[in-house]
From TrEMBL:
InterPro entries: DNA/RNA_pol_sf (IPR043502), RT_dom (IPR000477). Coiled coil: none annotated. Residues 1-99 form the Reverse transcriptase domain. GO terms for biological process: DNA biosynthetic process. The lineage of its organism: Eukaryota, Metazoa, Ecdysozoa, Arthropoda, Chelicerata. SUPFAM superfamilies: DNA/RNA polymerases (SSF56672). This is Reverse transcriptase domain-containing protein.
């Protein structure tokens, strides 16, 4: 799946495709945002276990959507940033692979 790079209709076609995932029901205290062709999952919770569960559920919803439209996700480019006073941040996985934690995201 894809649109010709630089095509006039490419962004419009992509908006139609990505609109489906943005309409999905999200886990509690979790939101999915889209910027051009990048996505971000934003979530907050009072405990490490709760945030891990919320993000896990959001990732599963996203993976199901990506598989449905045959969208391949680069796990090398998948990262997370975590803002908290926890000394041990949660860990997240994408289809069995650990998602890299970063202190800044470009």
């Amino acid at each position: 799946m894809g649109c010709p790079q630089g095509s006039c209709s490419g962004p419009t076609l992509w908006n139609l495709v990505e609109n489906e995932i943005l309409q999905e029901t999200e886990p509690e205290n979790t939101a999915l945002q889209e910027f051009a062709d990048d996505f971000v999952i934003v979530s907050h919770a009072p405990t490490k276990m709760k945030i891990e569960n919320q993000i896990h559920d959001a990732i599963e919803i996203f993976i199901n959507w990506a598989n449905k439209i045959k969208l391949q996700i680069s796990t090398d480019k998948t990262q997370y940033i975590f803002f908290s006073k926890l000394t041990r941040p949660p860990r997240f996985r994408w289809q069995g692979e650990t998602i890299q934690r970063k202190h800044t995201i470009k």
